[in-house]
Amino acid sequence: MGIGKSKTDPCLLSLSWGKSHSVATSQGHHKSDSKKSEEISLHDDAAHSNTSEMPTEGQEGAQGVEEMLEEEAEEEMFLKFVILHAEEDTDEALRVQNLLENDFGIKPGIIFAEMPCGRQHLQNLDDAVNGSAWTILLLTENFLRDTWCKFQFYTSLMNSVNRQHKYNSVIPLRPLNNPLPRERTPFALRTINALEEESRGFPTQVERIFQDSVYRIQQAIWKETRNTVQRQFIA
């Protein structure tokens, strides 16, 4: 009935078309009454709209958090090894990393210097040790001079003792350049057979230690632990 012919403001028409509170059909009604009726209609519509949208926004927020966690899980990768080293031995650590990855096909790996910047060293150390199957300690002359390196290897050893799936996961390695002599190696590390890069049996030792079956077991445990933490976070 005649809404299209009314001289009422088009904006008001567009806001009042969906409810029973509409423009008065009788010409005897005052414009103020019609305007008040439309304002009531707008108020009711807004309240109804806000009420209906609140649960949707909450659901979308929870879904967004879940999707974000899934994306982060996909981006992170369980590494074959991490090399802990003195700050002065970054180049040597990179050389050993390339040796293991390219010559022996043990990949992916990382050196500690490549861990994310801007984070606490303890957090990086925890992520490095628990996010890889093997922890390689680069035993050089510089290793014992660095107090942080001493903390690294003690922490790694304790982790391998306290977690059953990490048993035998700490691998001392004496590189070709500036290796730490056996007699100066800390007693705790002397109890573990170290890889000797200069020895003739080095390739055989590498193949015997870095077995893919061990990696798969640790990777499965790592994934399950991460999924459990994510489910608890979402809940």
Question: What does this 3D model show about the protein?
Answer:
The chain is of the alpha/beta class. It has helices spanning 10-16, 31-75, 90-103, 121-130, 147-162, 187-190, 202-209, 212-234; strands at 79-84, 109-111, 132-138, 170-174, 195-196. Strands 2-1-3-4-5 form a five-stranded parallel sheet, sandwiched between helices. Helix 3 links the parallel strand 1 (79-84) and strand 2 (109-111). The two termini are 54 Å apart. The relative contact order is 0.10.
Sequence-ordered SSE layout with sheet pairings:
Layout: H1 10-16, H2 31-75, E1 79-84, H3 90-103, E2 109-111, H4 121-130, E3 132-138, H5 147-162, E4 170-174, H6 187-190, E5 195-196, H7 202-209, H8 212-234
Parallel strand pairs: 1-2, 1-3, 3-4, 4-5
